[in-house]
Design a protein that fits this description.
Elements (H helix, E strand, L loop, with lengths): L1 H13 L10 E8 L2 E8 L7 E13 L2 E13 L15
Antiparallel strand pairs: 1-2, 2-3, 3-4
Length: 92
């Protein structure tokens, strides 16, 4: 399926999937002609202060492949004052 193709072909090229790490969930949204948004979710991380992480990439198709137009990350913290809401700041 399309999600498997993205995971296996495109995301390693963008550095989102490596031999040591792959997201638990990958969602691909086709946002228009030659554009896509990819959201990866992970809840098994190497940092005990983070309970979950999402990475969002807005991509534009170029003749030589996909290019990141915008990227961002947000976290759910496992400790501190905010353990229920997503936040862009690193967890304490």
């Amino acid at each position: 399926d399309a999600t498997t193709q993205w995971r296996d072909a495109v995301l390693p090229e963008l550095g989102v999937c490596t031999a040591d790490f792959a997201p638990d969930q990958i969602t691909v949204y086709n946002t228009g002609d030659g554009q896509a948004t990819v959201v990866t979710a992970s809840d098994v991380l190497f940092d005990d202060s983070v309970s979950a992480q999402e990475v969002r990439l807005d991509l534009v198709e170029q003749p030589d492949g996909w290019q990141v137009e915008w990227g961002g990350v947000r976290f759910q913290c496992s400790r501190g004052d905010n353990t229920t809401e997503w936040q862009p700041e690193l967890c304490p």
